Amino acid sequence: MSFLQINKTSKRFGGVLALSNVDFDLAKGEIHCLVGGNGSGKSTLIKIISGVQPPDPGSEIIVDGESYAHLTTVESSRLGIQVIYQDLSLFPNLTVAENIAAGLHRGYPHIADWSAIRRMAADAMARINISLDPDTRVCDLSIANRQLVAICRAIAADAKLVIMDEPTASLTRHEVDSLLALTLELKRKGIAVLFVSHRFDEVLEIAEKVTVIRDGVKLGTYDAAGMTEKQLIYLMSGKTFEYETADRQIDRGQPLLSVKGLSRAGEYHDISFDLHPGEILGITGLLGAGRTELALSIFGMSRPDAGEIRLDGKTVRFASNTEAIEAGIAYVPEDRLALSLILNQPISTNIALPVIDSLAGPTGLIGRTSWNELVTSWINDLKIKVSNADNAVRTLSGGNQQRVVIAKWLATHPRILILDSPTVGVDFQGKDGIYSIVRELAAKGLAVILISDEIPEVLYHCDRIFIMRDGRFTGEFMAHRSSEAEIGEAVYA
Amino acid sequence: MPKHFKAFARRQEFWLAILFAVLFVGLSIARPNFLSLQNGVDLISSYAYTGILVSAMLVVLVAGGIDMSFAAVATVAQYAALTVANSWDIGWLGVLLIAAAIGIILGVINGLLINILGLSAIIVTIATQSVIFGLVLTATKGQDIFSLPGWFTDGVAIPFHTTLDGYQYFINVQMIGLAVALALTWFVLNRTNVGRQIYAMGGNVEAARRIGYNVFRLNLFVYGYMGLAAGLASIVHAQYNMSVSPTALVGRELDVIAAAFLGGASATGGSGTILGVVLGIALVAVVQNGLTLLGVSSYWSQFFTGIIIVVAVASMARDVRRRWYDNPGAA
Question: Which of A74, A85, A112 sits opposite B196 (nearest CB)?
Fold first, then answer.
């Protein structure tokens, strides 16, 4: 028995056909996954289902047997369709209870009914067996718990279908497991779940059906059982992405960077390693293992308590990251949206910003020509897909945004590039692009430290891998002599 | 109980209360006449105008906006209502209705400009403040009104305390106005759906839109409420001064903003409570009054008000940083 059925649905934006004649079917209580690359039309489909955008005339949406030409957000919400956006749409300043029951504030009479709010929050949490303190403010919760609040809100609004957009992008492995368990709980309650995700291993673990969309056309809906990650990627792109471990020759003479016994209380302990020019060094481990903290110390943003950092054999002590940048270290942080990009500013400005002083002519003013040359050369070198360098960075896809961040740091001519989780929220084609950029840069002699949660990412794209755990390096692997299973065991054991 | 105390101890209001207590005790020891019923009555009466505006400013700041035009709005409301009252016998109700109506209309115009044109609230309201003030000066030729109807200057006087030697203390218009404004704002913000929607909108406007709150109407309400408060505060002010001057109010907005920020309202929206606002006004009043009692020149008053704003905003910024960056995974 299907809960949601979509027939012959199309959507045209100007001259671009974002969705073409798509049929889609979702049963009650089904766990369904929607996959597709950036720009494939999956977001458009979600927007049509949730009523954010109307489909073109001739389309049909059937919910619970009722046929609609299009839905409004209010209608879709009334019909039990609840969307959990990637940003979760919570109110950070309000309590858990009020966030869950936020819908009650729309109601009449105009007096806020606090006991009803608490009751609704308690009911929603009880229904899916989770317990959070209803009086905690959401800004004091971890990301995983915020997500639970968002799911409870959907439950409280009587969801029959919960749509989750990239729900696992910022969760640790353990948190992902609890989320997947929760999804099964929703299914037991008869609530369907539609995932949009880039993480195929998770998708295939949990979903019953997988629908693949490419260039606005639905390729098909498949049973998840028996489907493999490789098949999915092939369906989505028409290409296979086979990676192999690399056994590249690296000159292991004088190390470029040498870290000895580096410690910082509560963050990392007794870290020692060498990094050679042209080497790609992977650091993996669970979120919270101290990876980012270590990177920040190398980048001069926090001071180690003990140990030393040597560059070209000379001990360095950075007072700030400005000194680290001058010494040739670049750091691309994990959260590119919050920490690296000025989203509303043009792509060109974002690229030129770190080196803006070097563009100034003798008068101290910035020459338009040298500015344009710099921007154009990086856009070409990193193959950033832009129609106009003066568009805001916000308009780019995740993969292209990440390239802008990398371009921005490469413009400082670093000798060491630290990439912290560079492919989070980037689809596999975008990932592939980033990997090839990193490989090319390393071939030119740049030393790279790649920090990542994803084991395949470090295994296939690094020369050497360190496992980090509770602030310590607990294992070292040469990529070409290791396997995913071996590293996975070292990380999770 | 310990849980609630711990939560309270982390809030801005807690530190304000401690700071206030320290100042209060210190001043009481240094200047015995500070801790007198008469000084209390005087303080409340002279800060009632500020207090009424601060409570409405809290609503605006919680919503994520700001209003710089309230003093000009108050000037128009005051001048118009009392000019009419000098010619016709409209009574208290008439004066209040005229002032309230003018305030609401001008406030809603601010709200419309900000929302329809999508402009920054601070720029729009500085502009409307200038436009309104310019019109007032032209229309009134800058002239004060010194004679007001007798029933108006007499005001309200409800005795609430008589000393042993027969001296009476009265509840006056200023106290009533301040109490009503604080109580009404508390009620709106905590007990109505509109108030909760305003908090939510200040916390995350996009999420508010997605959940189906009418952000446009909420903003009109917020600026209308500020206008209403400006209208009513202006009458309280005129009654206290027993005269109306078109130049008395504009240029003195700083106290209002200082008290609101001090009370924990944030310029980015979503935070602030009526308790914080009460403590904020009390602190500004006590600092300014204390300086006078200690014999410090009144010129220093502005200086310290400015310092208060910096300290308040800095302490909140530190709190926000701690919350978001040092402790992102706090569960």
Answer: A112
